[in-house]
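Customer ticket, subject: "Can you confirm the structure for ArsC family transcriptional regulator?"

Message body: Hello, I'm evaluating your service for our small team and ran a test protein. I'd like someone to confirm that this is what the system normally returns, since I don't have a reference to compare against.
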Amino acid sequence: MNKPKVAFVCVHNSCRSQIAEALGKHLASDTYESYSAGTEAKPQINQDAVQLMNRLYGIDMEQSQHSKLLSEIPPVDIVITMGCNVKCPFLPCKYREDWGLNDPSGMDDTAFLETITLIRDKILNLRDRIQNGTL
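Agent reply: Thanks for trying us out. I re-ran your input and got the following:
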């Protein structure tokens, strides 16, 4: 059985969706393939996110990830939007949900840590729902 492909999508693909891609690969690669993309690309991943993910999980997002446009990822089965507070990017899929996460960019480490924890919990929940067939 092929693993479903999951795209984590937000406008700039520089922070929340990058964290979700990294944690998806780290915590759920046995269940689904993780990608991230946006309608606009940034020159680099949010540096606060990079530093905290490295400190918390030993993941260097800059080694294996970069800001990508929707057209740069393969067709996906599941689209997770981060909570864009604007018109979220559209990508064809079989299932879609919005996680409604606030963007911690420009905030302190506490806001980033809260966002990373929320994303981790949602990544694990998504993995469980795929594994038990409820998604």
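A couple of notes from the result: The beta strands are 5-9, 33-37, 78-81, 95-98. The CA atoms of residues 129 and 135 lie 5 Å apart. Feel free to reply with more questions.
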